[in-house]
Amino acid sequence: MTPEEVDEISAAGFVFMHNIGLNIILTSTLLGMYCLAFYISLYIYMKKRNAGGAKKAMLCVLLCTFILMLMFFVSTVGSLFEHVVSLPHAIKQSQGQIYETIISWLSNIIALIADSVIAWRAWAVWMDNKKVKWTLLVLILADIGITLSDGAVDESVLDHHLTINAIPLDCDAFVLSLSVNVIATSLIAFRAWMHHKSMTAISISIKRKRSKAEAILLLLVESGAIYALLQLLVIIMNELEVKKGNVSIQFEFATAFTVLVYEMAAILNPVAIFILVQTDNTYEQSFHLEEILTLSQPPQSQHTSGILNDPEGTPDDAGHTDQETDMIGIGRIDSGAGVHTAMSPMMIVAEQEAETQ
Fold first, then answer.
1. Are residues 274 and 300 in the same domain?
2. For residue 99, what are the contacts with CB-CB under 8 A and spacing of at least 6?
3. Same domain as 248, residue 193
4. Do 350 and 333 form a contact (C-beta atoms < 8 A)?
5. Do 235 and 329 belong to one domain?
6. Whether residue 193 is found in the same domain as residue 327
7. Based on the domain organization, do 338 and 237 belong to the same domain?
8. CA 210, CA 181: separation in Å to the nearest integer?
9. Nearest to 255 by CA among 182, 167, 176
10. Are residues 99 and 127 in the same domain?
11. What percent of the chain is predicted at pLDDT more than 70?
12. Per the UniProt record, which residue ranges are transmembrane (predicted)?
């Protein structure tokens, strides 16, 4: 066997491993995970009798991402046929490029949706601060502009077989997306620290657990941090590819795997956070009520239970329920007369939305 034949067999094995192991198996796993998460989120949404405007907007986002996920899977599987040119039913190379173009645009749109959801969360937490809102708006508009430009350049490269290197623009898009995520997550983290400080100040002599608002805010911070690490890893690998020029097949496979994991995180992040918050998996009591019975509160004002214990809520004198929808659109904060609710910034946001509805 000649060295040329060995190289051809090695290249064929890499293409087979890339198509089967990366594109088909991982993409199918992503589709299955998202379909399950999407079904759970729809079930949770249908169980809610009074869904606020933010939750309805979040439902529209989930529907859009579900459609994009189906299109991404179909395009990924369809693009595999362009590598199998010897089969009688193989598609033409031009048709394969159409699938590649669709995948490129879908990836950009999914990234934009993920960035918009992250900025939306920070906007909701800081809705009373105009400087923060304007900063987030400018970042999102810049992110949209760079991402659309990147998609247009990628399409030109695929359609006209250009030799220009589009990777630097890809890096710019990733860097701007990372900036949006880091700034928005930092703003949420700062709000979480402010809330923790205020809750600690009023509970010096009381044994206290993490409040519900703290749990939600920390969940948003943790998810944003993990997403930022994936973005940073993609940027590093793209920069290495730019500097090295001709990279090995193994490095190309590693880069493709990292990008696919990043896309999985981008599309699963909104629906995962929605489910975790709505099912109360992050909620804890703020205080041990048995230690403050001297306050002599009536039974209906002592509850701090979440959605699992009181799914319908109890209306107050103004007609509002104890479980109002927060402006983040992925959860709710108890706005009843519980002891811990008075100092929560997130609960103030919930009450403001309830008054406007």
1. no
2. 75, 76, 78, 79, 82
3. yes
4. yes
5. no
6. no
7. no
8. 25
9. 167
10. yes
11. 59
12. 20-45, 57-81, 101-122, 134-153, 173-194, 215-236, 256-277
Domain assignment present for 289:
no
Per-residue b or e along 334-346, where b marks 16 or more CB atoms closer than 10 Å to that residue's CB:
bbbbbbbbebbbb
Sequence-ordered list of residues with C-beta below 8 angstroms from that of 247, at least 6 positions apart, any chain:
240, 241, 255
According to DSSP, the residues that pair with 323 across neighbouring strands are 334
Domain limits at 16? Answer: 3-278
Q: List, in order, residues 6 or more apart from 122 with CB less than 8 Å away.
A: 132, 136, 183, 184, 185, 187, 188
Whole-number average pLDDT of the chain = 69
Tracing tokens 């001297």 back to the chain, one arrives at 294
Segment 232-288, tens digit of pLDDT: 988 888 778 777 767 677 777 777 788 888 888 888 888 887 777 776 554 333 333
264 and 311 in one domain?
no
pTM for the complete prediction?
0.67
Give the chain's domain count: 2
In a domain, 287, yes or no: no
Q: At what angle do helices 93-125 and 345-356 cross, to 10 degrees?
A: 100
> In this predicted model, what pLDDT tens digit does every residue of 33-82 receive, in sequence order?
888 888 888 888 787 766 667 677 777 888 888 888 888 888 877 776 65
d(CA 50, CA 307): 13
| Residue 212, domain CATH | 1.20.1070
